[in-house]
Write a structure and sequence with these properties.
By secondary structure, the protein is mainly alpha-helical. It contains five helices and three strands, in the order H-H-E-E-E-H-H-H. 80% of the residues lie in helices and 6% in strands. The longest helix has 46 residues, at 98-143.
Length: 176
């Protein structure tokens, strides 16, 4: 990972460093150290935010690190079933068709389950690829194999994007 790339771990380290620096400046009365510590904490927050930034278009996601991922098909199918189930339920309510309403409720619930399965698969797969990419990149770096190091960095970045995409959708559902 180059110094230009955002990293959640780096943001945590910078945040802790900034907090310690700010506290030391406060204790010693050195406003310069305190300001420098506060600036480091602000930078850490920006790094963390950037590390979690993704752009989504349908089932595709791209992260600030350049990683690309496609959602597990169960996420898309589950979302579709939720939409169709809600429509059937609403139509069943409107026309008084209890069978259609019940069918819609069941399809909606099935869709929620499918989408959750896909999200968990993407989240877990993303974490696995990030770990594999990180460890593989370290090993390739030790042996000096730059080509493999770049391959493992891309694996890490794609895994991060896959994980962040799932997190993004889960958070959106929680906020709704």
């Amino acid at each position: 990972m180059s110094d230009k790339e955002s990293s959640t771990l780096k943001s945590y380290i910078d945040s802790a460093t900034g907090a310690a620096q700010s506290a030391l400046g406060s204790l010693t009365g050195n406003t310069g150290d305190q300001a420098k510590g506060d600036a480091t904490k602000d930078k850490a927050k920006a790094e963390k935010d950037e590390s979690h930034t993704i752009a989504k278009l349908g089932p595709y996601a791209v992260s600030s690190s350049g990683g690309i991922s496609t959602d597990d098909p169960r996420r898309t199918e589950g979302s579709y079933n939720q939409t169709m189930g809600s429509a059937k339920e609403m139509l069943g309510n409107a026309v008084g068709a209890q069978g259609l309403k019940k069918e819609g409720q069941e399809q909606n619930a099935e869709g929620k389950g499918m989408e959750a399965e896909g999200q968990l698969s993407d989240f877990g797969g993303g974490m696995k690829d990030r770990a594999h990419g990180t460890l593989g990149g370290v090993a390739a770096g030790v042996t000096g194999d730059r080509e493999k190091q770049a391959k493992f960095q891309q694996m890490h970045d794609d895994g991060k994007t896959q994980q962040r995409s799932a997190e993004h959708d889960i958070q959106q559902q929680a906020d709704a």
